[in-house]
Amino acid sequence: MASFDIPTIDVSPFFSSEENEEGKKKATEQMKEACVNYGFFQIANHEIPLELLSRTMDMYKTFFASSDEEKLLVPNNYVKSTQNPAETYEHFVFRLSSSVVNVCPKNPPHFKELLEEMASHFKKLGVVLEGMISECLGLPPNFLTNYKNDESRDILIGLHYFPATENDNTGKQAHEDPGCFTVVYQDEIGGLEVHKNGHWIPIAPSKDKLVVNIGDVIQVLSNNRFKSATHRVIRPRDANRFSCTFFYNVQGDKWVEPLPQFTKEIGESPKYRGFLFGEYMQLRIKNVTHPPAKPEDLIHITHYSISN
């Protein structure tokens, strides 16, 4: 196994009331390098209370330890992987859309309130990361926030991976995230791996850091300047794995295509044809609900690639 530490970026200057332009510049430069080379990085001093993260993880553990009968009382929010025996996990989805009613379990108590508090912190962090990513791309600081425009497609997911069997340790197969970017908090078990230079690199868990990975939307907007990283989850033997993940997406009717700043304005050809985000999401969901017989037939962002 290759040894590699993904970059860690101190984002505290973006939360401080005191001006720290030097700190902001350093963090932005580190993020740009990470987005170009890895598509993955860790952030420290992110302003999400560790006590809140710990309580949220404990709450997920309590919920996932309950009976199947109890979990199935919230069928629109609870999902257990059954289509693919190689991916053995269950998750609880909390949607931020005002048009969706999140039905939360009664046990543990205050489930919904805790997730709402957790989501509000992730949303604040998201605005900071949107500004940093925009600046890394040489775009106006508010570009991505304006482009993304609302949070109705954002989701907070609690994940539980069952222990590996003797024959299989796959938690989530290799994939890229379809949206803008994703923020992950994994427990002390670890298991998250990123693909880099032909190697799978384990990302060591850290109780005070969050992992961020760039998604397909950013890769397309930047015309491949920034990388949507391929990653997977490996299940440990004799241990359950838990994580808390926030997906920053765009609306289904959002048109996604390489920006002119990275194509015609600099004389480069677009590497992707445009598409509606909702259309792409449907294809990605079909990967899970109706997986093709051959793994190479799974839909990735390359589905929209233009051969020049």
Question: Can you give a write-up of this model?
Answer:
With 308 residues, the chain is an alpha+beta fold. Helices cover 28% and strands 22% of the residues. The strands form three sheets. Strands 1-2-10-7-12-5-4-3 form an eight-stranded mixed beta sheet. The longest helix is centred in the middle third of the chain and has 26 residues, at 111-136. It is globular, with a radius of gyration of 19 Å. The two termini are 36 Å apart. The mean pLDDT is 93.
Any low-confidence stretches, pLDDT <50, length ≥5?
none
Helix tally equals 7
Largest sheet: 8 strands, mixed
Specify the overall morphology. Answer: globular
Distance between the termini: 36 Å
Alpha-beta content class: alpha+beta
Number of strands: 14
Mean of pLDDT: 93
Strand content: 15-25%
| Largest beta sheet: strand ordering | 1-2-10-7-12-5-4-3
Give the SSE string.
EHEHHEEHHEEEEEEHEEEEH
Radius of gyration: 19 Å
**In which range does the helix fraction lie?**
25-40%
